[in-house]
Backbone:
């Protein structure tokens, strides 16, 4: 007797409700979609994004909360290089080529080098870590990221004693990101972010290559991004091409755009309001009522000691 | 065609399209991952648009020589108030869950909310006095004077939007220039009107 095992269905394969509700429109769009399918033959994000990641272990640093749906996390994105609305990045980033990809790690390090994506994937055991993600706009999600602590990569290049901060840079290319002009995005580009070295070495600071068991889709920062769960979402820089260890506080995009509203630290802090709105509460996507925002996004036990003696109102 | 008694019907139906669209998306559970934010922005966008449509009637009547357009002005103005009310209720009732304490704090502390409320409140007397009965009761001159409040509505709405966005100011700038243009038309046309009429004071001064 032949017993067929049901195929594991991947998160990205589940037909979104709006597609099956509009299946006639979907069928009408098929000829165009078939033309678009040629795209699949070239190495592009489609080939990589959505591939299932093997040998992933559960992280001890996971929180015990229910993750949002794959659809929430992959259709509600801030990624200004692909458009400034929440829905745009999922639509405009699908041809984003993330292969080949290299991340250059340089600056005050004993062993500067370029990592290919394969090298990044194999640099340390991949773990699944369920984290809270709190946006500065007062919404939040819970995501099962896949990756490992950023410190694993930093240790490989051996920061020297001169290194006190880490600067990160996002890929920027108008050919692939036609919406990414500083005028359209309203922010200077390429996108840059930074952490203090001790923050970057904290085990919770994570280099992510996947989510929901699969490689990251472009709109969520493929192929490799940062996840700093105790800070506002914009600190978790996407599609990283450069990591530089430096000796002074590096410039960060939102701080350059509006220093009064976005500080270098940008730790989640319900007591320090954004000048234009309260940070005391947030809306978890999928929930109706707002919920109170937690100090350091609920990671205070692990990270508060990094800021001992600091005035967090001043260093927002 | 504008004179036909049914001419208002298509404008009415068109004005209802946005609210039907959002209701349809709600019915299909398709209001994005953050429905409250989506509805707030959607109704806000349509409030500003209807304020612009309303402000455009007077210039268009004159520029296109279509005086009958006047019959749509009240309709469009009331739809601006309708979408403004939905916008306000989404924020007040759904987002803040009628938390008056938080709302008053927001009103005092957040200038974009102060400006938004100012814009909304300025529409209330206009909606109340929009009936023919009120025009008669107030007298045309006084009624017209009161209804100049919509200039304030337009300016407040644009500033509210401009202060809200994080970095991409293209849409607030677009609405800002439309409102600016429509208000500038009034300044210029009243200046021309004054020039045409005798201006005794000025004449006395220069003499």
Residues:
């Amino acid at each position: 007797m032949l017993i067929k095992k049901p195929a594991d269905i991947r998160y990205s394969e589940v037909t979104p409700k709006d597609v099956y509700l509009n299946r006639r429109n979907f069928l009408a769009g098929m000829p165009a979609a078939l033309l678009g399918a040629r795209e699949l033959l070239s190495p592009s994000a489609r080939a990589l994004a959505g591939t299932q990641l093997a040998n992933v272990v559960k992280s001890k640093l996971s929180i015990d909360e229910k993750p949002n749906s794959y659809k929430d996390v992959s259709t509600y994105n801030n990624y200004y290089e692909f458009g400034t609305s929440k829905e745009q990045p999922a639509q405009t980033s699908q041809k984003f080529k993330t292969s080949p990809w290299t991340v250059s790690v340089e600056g005050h390090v004993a062993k500067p080098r370029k990592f290919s994506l394969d090298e990044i994937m194999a640099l340390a055991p991949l773990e699944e870590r369920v984290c809270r993600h709190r946006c500065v706009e007062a919404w939040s999600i819970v995501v099962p990221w896949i990756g490992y602590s950023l410190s694993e990569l930093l240790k490989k290049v051996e920061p020297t004693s001169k290194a006190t901060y880490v600067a990160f840079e996002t890929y920027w290319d108008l050919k692939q990101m036609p919406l990414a002009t500083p005028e359209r995005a309203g922010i200077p580009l390429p996108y840059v972010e930074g952490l203090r070295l001790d923050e970057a070495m904290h085990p919770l600071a994570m280099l992510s290559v996947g989510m929901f068991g699969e490689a990251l889709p472009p709109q969520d920062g493929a192929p490799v991004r940062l996840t700093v769960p105790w800070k506002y979402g914009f600190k978790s820089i996407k599609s990283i091409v450069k990591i530089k260890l430096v000796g002074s506080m590096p410039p960060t995009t939102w701080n350059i755009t509006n220093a009064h509203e976005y500080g270098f630290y940008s730790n989640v802090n319900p007591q320090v309001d954004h000048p234009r709105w309260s940070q005391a509460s947030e809306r978890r996507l999928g929930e109706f009522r707002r919920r109170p925002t937690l100090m350091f996004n609920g990671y205070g036990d692990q990270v508060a000691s990094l800021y001992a003696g600091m005035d967090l109102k001043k260093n927002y | 065609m504008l004179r036909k008694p049914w001419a208002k019907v298509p404008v009415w139906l068109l004005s209802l399209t946005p609210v039907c669209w959002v209701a349809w998306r709600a019915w299909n559970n398709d209001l994005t991952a953050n429905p409250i934010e989506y509805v707030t922005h959607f109704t806000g966008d349509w409030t500003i648009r209807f304020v612009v449509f309303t402000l455009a009637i007077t210039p268009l009547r004159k520029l296109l020589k279509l005086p009958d357009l006047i019959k749509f002005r009240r309709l469009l103005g009331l739809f601006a108030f309708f979408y403004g009310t939905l916008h306000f209720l989404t924020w007040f009732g759904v987002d803040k869950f009628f938390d008056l304490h938080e709302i008053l704090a927001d009103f005092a502390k957040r200038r974009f909310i102060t400006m938004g409320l100012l814009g909304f409140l300025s529409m209330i007397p206009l909606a109340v006095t929009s009936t023919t009965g009120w025009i008669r009761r107030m007298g045309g001159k006084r009624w017209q004077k009161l209804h100049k409040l919509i200039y304030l509505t337009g300016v407040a709405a644009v500033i509210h939007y401009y202060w809200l966005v994080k970095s991409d100011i293209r849409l607030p700038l677009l609405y800002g220039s439309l409102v600016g243009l429509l208000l500038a038309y009034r300044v210029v046309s009243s200046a021309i009107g004054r020039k045409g009429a005798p201006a005794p004071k000025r004449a006395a001064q220069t003499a």
Summary: Chain B has one domain: 34-192. The two ends of chain B are 52 Å apart (CA to CA). The mean pLDDT of chain B is 89.
